[in-house]
């Protein structure tokens, strides 16, 4: 699949900017704790769809793929690839699955977003997560065979068929949460903002009317969001083979933690009853990151009276692009998320995960935008937030990816990717705060023919921050 890159960027820019500002309005309108429900007209609607429609999302996915094929045939790049015929379909059905070499942004961001549309169609038609995930996987396979002449590729199937499900569920949950809680918006703007977050959900609510206009029941999770807008400047840089690096950039950042452990009565019975979503848009290259992880199967636990947590199997989709290199991964991990009440005024929240993914990694602004490689990727994450009453918080997140040569394509070798994000947020008044942030990214690549290559970049910046709650998301329990 080859989107026109400029068109893809414009589409995704609108999507990413809309998510932060929609949730900013929602967060700004609330002044309670995340344990407290917000009365709203939308929450008085039926909590779950009255029934499931298995035919509607199948027809929508077929129609979406047809329109996407026609749009790319008319206006995209590589238009001849979309001149699908009986011969090309027959050839794709008989062909073995390989790895394609479309531009990185198309394969690693465009495909997951396409998969999220499949997932949203199915979820908004009343299907469960696992049923929708099946539709997403099938929709991706259908595109690979019927949507283009290029032989089917397993990397696209992973990114859209699996990564698209992880991204799509997070978008569907955020869209539904905005519809349910309201955020002080008028019905028109609430529906509009929710539709921008999850277009498939908005489409079904608009077209199908009362048949599909009930709101997904969140069961009142503990959640916390932040919107940040500010400036990042390069503190140190070793760009390696990357030829262009902008030292200074403006960034807009949005994060949401949904279903945080500790809320009395909240249960983790459905996939993504806990999830974390984080995205950053940069003036230097559109996207700096899109990161989401959610609990697929797990349970809650406690240790004493001051610790509450969850553990189990997590699904994650990561896209990271700090100007010098890019890495993207779809993965399954075992992990735990919890909160410890260290004292009356101090709470510590954190997540630890380790697992296996399928990743792509390559240089930005190098010899070619298609010069990147795939491989099976063991990976790990550790995040920590220390909340100092209602005054401030310290956030530290570390990520590690080892992109091996197993099941990959490209130059032989392996890559070690490290990322550390440290920020301190100080609340000035109400939900208004300032944040100091340091972000460090490093790629060390080893190739048999090229030797060792290293790319790294450290940036420091200051941000205005709009807090979802004045106490930084601390969860209280009895």
Largest sheet: 12 strands, antiparallel, barrel
Give the mean pLDDT.
85
Count of individual domains = 2
Summarize the helix and strand pattern as letters: HHHHHHHHHEEEEEEEEEEEE
Which percent bin holds the helix content?
Answer: 25-40%
Which geometry do the CA atoms define? Answer: globular
> Spans with pLDDT under 50 lasting ≥5 residues?
1-18, 24-48
Question: Structural class, from secondary structure content?
Answer: alpha+beta
Please give the radius of gyration in angstroms: 22 Å
CATH class of the largest domain: Mainly Beta
User: How is the CATH topology of the largest domain named?
Assistant: Lipocalin
Total DSSP E strands: 12
Task: Describe what you observe in this structure.
The chain has 478 residues and is α+β, with helices and mostly antiparallel strands. It folds into two domains: 41-212, no CATH class; 221-467, Lipocalin. The protein is built from nine helices and twelve strands. It has helices at residues 5-29, 55-75, 86-94, 104-124, 129-147, 154-161, 163-181, 187-197, 199-208, and strands at 223-238, 248-258, 275-282, 286-303, 307-320, 325-341, 346-363, 372-388, 392-403, 413-429, 432-447, 451-467. It has a twelve-stranded antiparallel barrel, surrounded by four helices. Helix 2 runs parallel beside helix 5 and helix 7 (163-181) runs antiparallel to helix 8 (187-197). The radius of gyration is 22 Å and the shape is globular. The model is unreliable at 1-18 and 24-48 (pLDDT under 50).
């Amino acid at each position: 699949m080859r989107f026109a890159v400029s068109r893809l960027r414009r589409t995704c820019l609108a999507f990413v900017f809309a998510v932060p500002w929609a949730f900013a309005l929602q967060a700004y309108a609330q002044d309670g704790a995340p344990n407290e429900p917000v009365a709203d007209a939308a929450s008085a609607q039926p909590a779950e769809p009255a029934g499931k429609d298995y035919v509607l999302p199948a027809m929508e996915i077929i129609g979406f793929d047809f329109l996407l094929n026609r749009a790319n045939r008319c206006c995209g790049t590589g238009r001849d690839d979309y001149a699908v015929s009986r011969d090309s379909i027959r050839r794709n059905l008989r062909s073995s699955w390989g790895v394609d070499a479309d531009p990185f942004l198309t394969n690693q961001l465009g495909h997951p977003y396409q998969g999220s549309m499949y997932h949203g169609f199915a979820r908004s038609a009343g299907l469960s997560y696992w049923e929708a995930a099946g539709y997403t996987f099938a929709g991706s396979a259908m595109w690979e065979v019927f949507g283009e002449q290029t032989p089917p590729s397993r990397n696209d199937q992973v990114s859209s068929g699996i990564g698209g499900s992880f991204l799509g569920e997070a978008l569907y949950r955020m869209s539904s949460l905005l519809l349910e809680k309201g955020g002080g918006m008028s019905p028109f703007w609430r529906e509009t903002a929710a539709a921008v977050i999850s277009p498939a959900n908005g489409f079904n609510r608009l077209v199908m009317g009362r048949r599909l206009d009930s709101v997904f029941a969140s069961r009142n999770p503990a959640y916390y969001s932040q919107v940040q807008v500010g400036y990042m400047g390069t503190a140190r840089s070793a760009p390696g083979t990357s030829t262009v690096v902008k030292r200074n950039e403006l960034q807009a950042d949005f994060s949401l933690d949904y279903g945080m452990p500790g809320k009395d009565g909240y249960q983790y019975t459905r996939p993504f009853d806990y999830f974390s979503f984080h995205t950053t848009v940069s003036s230097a290259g559109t996207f700096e990151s899109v990161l989401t992880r959610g609990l697929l199967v797990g349970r809650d636990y406690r240790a004493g009276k001051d610790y509450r947590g969850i553990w189990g199997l997590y699904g994650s989709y990561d896209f990271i692009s700090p100007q010098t290199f890019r890495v993207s991964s779809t993965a399954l991990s075992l992990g735990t998320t919890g909160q410890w009440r260290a004292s009356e005024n101090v709470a510590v929240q954190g997540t630890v995960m380790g697992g296996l993914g399928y990743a792509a990694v390559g240089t930005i602004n190098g010899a070619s935008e298609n010069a990147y490689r795939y491989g099976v990727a063991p990976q790990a994450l550790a995040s920590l937030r220390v909340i100092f009453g209602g005054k401030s918080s310290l956030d530290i997140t570390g990520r590690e990816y080892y992109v091996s040569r197993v099941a990959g394509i490209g130059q032989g070798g392996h890559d070690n990717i490290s990322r550390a994000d440290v920020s301190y947020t100080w609340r000035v008044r109400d939900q208004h705060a300032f944040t100091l942030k340091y972000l460090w990214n490093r790629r060390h690549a080893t190739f048999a023919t090229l030797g060792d290559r290293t790319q790294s970049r450290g940036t420091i910046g200051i941000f205005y921050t709009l807090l979802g709650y004045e106490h930084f998301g601390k969860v209280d329990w009895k």
